[in-house]
Every structure is written in C-alpha cells, then in structure tokens.
Amino acid sequence: MKNIKFILTLFILAVTFQSCESYDDFPEEREAVVGFTSATSSITVSAGQMTAEKELDIFVSDLSSSDRTFNVVVVEEGSEVASENYSFDGAVTFLANERNAILVFTAIDNSLMSEPQPLILAFEFSDSYASGGRITLNIKTSN
Predict the structure, then answer these.
(1) Comparing 138 with 31, which gets the higher pLDDT?
(2) Which of 9, 51, 98, 104 is 20–30 Å from 32 (CA)?
(3) pLDDT at position 31, please?
C-alpha cells in the first residue's frame, strides 16, 4: 500500500510540473529564413540551342502582409561556371501573404563543357533575415 501512495504522489507531481510549462520565453517576432527548396539541380543546354531555362523553387519561413525582396548571389567558392554562361535576376520578390516564389535561371552555351560544372547560388547575407538552403546547379551542354 505504501508503494501505491508513493507512485501516486510521484505521478501527481509529474503531471503538475509538466502542465506548468510555459512557452512564453520564445520571442514573438523571429527573423525570416529564406532558401531554395532543393539542394541540387541540373541544367543541360541541348545541341543546337543556345540557352536552357530552369525554374528554381524558393521558400520563406513566414508570411508578410507586404511584398518582400531578397537578393540571390553566386557563391564563388565551389562554383566553376564562367559568368558568361548563365543569367538570372538577382532579386526575388515574394508577394504579400506568399511563402513561395520562383527564380528563373538561364544557362547560356557560350563556353559550357559536356561534363557538368557546379554553380552554387545562395541568398545574400542580411541582418534582417537568415539565409537558408543553397542550391548547386550542375550545368553542361549536350554538344
């Protein structure tokens, strides 16, 4: 009987302390996180074509009642594609109350190789948001 009272007392104390937890310690406003939804993608410029386009999906972690623009940059370290072989708009705008956007990337066959070469894209550093996932584009020509 003594063991039952002890176990019952422990159970009541555990339930009481568990129910008193509060999540008020977390700040209401957190910085947005913006990034690519895929870590890698491939683009091939077909023989006889000069360009190939690829839509890259982008996300932001929170909603906003107004449009927001984030800047995309090439990460030099690890990227092997010459700048003459690609084009993209460096500013991505998320419309109000939207968490998804698309960046249209264009590969241009000025001096592409038949073996894939990596190009890494990321969001520019800012104090107002956190840069999330990068993407590595493997770009080649089928010539």
Answers:
(1) 138
(2) 104
(3) 82
Burial class (CB in 10 A: 0-12, 13-18, 19+), 11: exposed
3-state secondary structure of 11: helix
More confident residue, 41 or 31: 41
Strand partners, 34: 60, 131
Distance CA 126, CA 30 (A): 14
* Statement: residue 74 has pLDDT above 60: yes
CATH of the domain at 82: 2.60.40.1740
How many CB atoms within 10 Å of residue 24? 6
Cα–Cα distance for residue pair 72/139, rounded to 1 Å: 18
